[in-house]
Amino acid sequence: MLKSRNFDGGVIYGGGGRLEPSFRNTGLYNVDGRFSYPDSNVGLYRHTGRSEDVGKFRVPTVRNVAVTAPYMHDGSISTLEEVIEHYAAGGRTIASGPYAGVGRNNPNKAGNVQGFNLTTSEKKDLVAFLESLTDKDFLTDPRLSDPWK
């Protein structure tokens, strides 16, 4: 039996053991300086001290992704359409300012973030698919509401 864990990149095979969380650098930044990510936001590196972990963040679930904007670990992308464009480009390019750089060229970027081409229609279909992962019953279940209210 094959089952996905919450649409978060992890896959468990029947009889398999515990699945460790996945951390990836998606080419969001490639700034000059000590790190390829902003100094205050270097990801897994902050915990491991390993240079190959700079810019690696936990792969989140895409379950209910349509209601979790803004996107990316730092909220720097506003819409699902922009997220798709980021991945289609193989990383984000920031033309000017303190975070200027070509994320596609980040040395720690995950190998599966290579870029791809989609038509406008295909992009709309992909957004519609991601929106279809919204579980309205889950979102409105009073048993899962804020316990502090």
How would you describe this protein?
This protein has 4 helices and 6 strands. With 149 residues, the protein is an alpha+beta fold. It has one domain: Cytochrome Bc1 Complex, Chain D, domain 2, CATH 1.10.760. It has a two-stranded antiparallel sheet with strand order 1-2.
Q: In the CATH hierarchy, what is the superfamily?
A: Cytochrome c-like domain
Taking the sheet with the most strands, its summary is: 2 strands, antiparallel
Q: What's the domain count?
A: 1
What is the CATH domain class? Mainly Alpha
* Helicity range: 10-25%
Which structural class best describes the helix and strand composition? alpha+beta
Question: In total, how many beta strands?
Answer: 6
How many individual helices? Answer: 4
Q: SSE order, as H and E?
A: EEEHEHEEHH
Please give the order of strands in the largest beta sheet.
1-2
List keywords for this structure.
Cytochrome Bc1 Complex, Chain D, domain 2, globular, 9% strand, two-stranded antiparallel ribbon, alpha+beta, 149 residues
Write the layout of secondary structure elements.
Elements: E1 2-4, E2 11-13, E3 23-24, H1 45-48, E4 57-58, H2 80-88, E5 93-94, E6 101-102, H3 120-132, H4 136-140
Antiparallel strand pairs: 1-2, 3-4, 5-6
Concise overview:
By secondary structure, this protein is α+β, with helices and mostly antiparallel strands.
